[in-house]
Amino acid sequence: MYAHIKYVRQIRVFEPATDAIDRTKKILFRNFDAAIWFTIGFSAWLASFGSLNFSINELVRVLTNMKNLSTKITLNKIKTMDPNEIIAAIVIGVIIVAIIILRIWISSRGKFMFMHCVAKNVAEVKWPWREYKFRANSLFRFKLTLAVIAIVLLAAIIAAFWLVFSLKDSLSYPKDDSANMVYATGVLATSMLALTLLILIAFLTDAFVLPIMYKHNLRCIDGWRYFLSLLKFNKWNFVKFCFGMLVINMIVFLVITALILATCCLFAVIVSLPYVGIVAVLPIRVFYRSYTAIYLAQYGKELNVLEPIPDDQAKPTA
Asked: I want to staple 108 with a disulfide (CB 3.0 to 4.6 A). Which of 122, 136, 196, 221 is the partner?
């Protein structure tokens, strides 16, 4: 299946961005139709559910406050907790986990729906929801596995800090602040490295593995095998792609910041609204989905998932 995969020398990083901008214009702006925006925006909104987007800054903030939290949760306090409080905490935890699972499941369906709309220049909801069930469920299981790993990792981090800053008061634990600092620093560095790896896996899944699954009707694990065989021969190309994405992200950030300042923060309020916010930034969503697909297509026609849009048929079909 992967015999045709080889090293590709002439791979462009920034030129596909120009093609992605042109495709975004054809889908959304040429022959503008608000109904088309809201239909494609609905798929993009569903795709945004349950994304594995960890904030490193948020992680650092949480971990720096972990000492204060852990000193409040001691063994003695746990032993004296009311049984109803424990049951309530368990129920809340179960509800939160159920919501996370539901969001990941919806997101998996939504990602294929959005891929379908961008790839075929259509504005459809019902048909892609049913058509991509097999591939979306496979993606859901993979994303759920990543989420479980992330939750276990965060739980381990909390337990590690609790061990240092809480249990030492009730056990025969050496109260050496310098040793505790070294321990905490090691936990922080290891956890950030692991979470960064999870972020990278989630990003590569959405950017490349998902289009491969979409094109060849593969399970997520098979899509990853396909992508890894491609990565094996083109490591440097994908490293350059990642650096290119950083530059593009910076440009997009500056554009969004300019819009927020130009509208006196009104744009920020709109973007923060559920669904409406996704529709407001739909051009950015379509651009990113188009850009990664166009970049991937450079490795062979069997990886080209985007259908051409004739100039006389720019408006998506409903």
From this structure: 136
Q: How far apart are CA 151 and CA 128, in angstroms?
A: 31
Higher pLDDT, 158 or 130: 130
* Number of C-beta neighbours around residue 102 at 10 A: 12
pTM (predicted TM-score): 0.83
What distance in Å separates the CA atoms of residue 255 and residue 246, rounded to the nearest whole number? 14
pLDDT band at 303 (very low <50, low <70, confident <90, very high): very high
Contact assessment for residue 11 and residue 298, using Cβ atoms and an 8 Å cutoff: yes
Distance from CA of residue 288 to its chain's centroid? 12
Tell me phi and psi for residue 42, to 5 degrees.
-65, -45
Which pLDDT score is estimated for 197? 87
List of residues 6+ apart from 6 with CB closer than 8 A? 233
Tokens of 104: 């990941």
User: How do the domains of the chain map onto residue ranges?
Assistant: 15-313
What is the C-alpha separation between 6 and 54, in angstroms, rounded?
A: 33
In DSSP terms, 317 is beta-bridged to 122
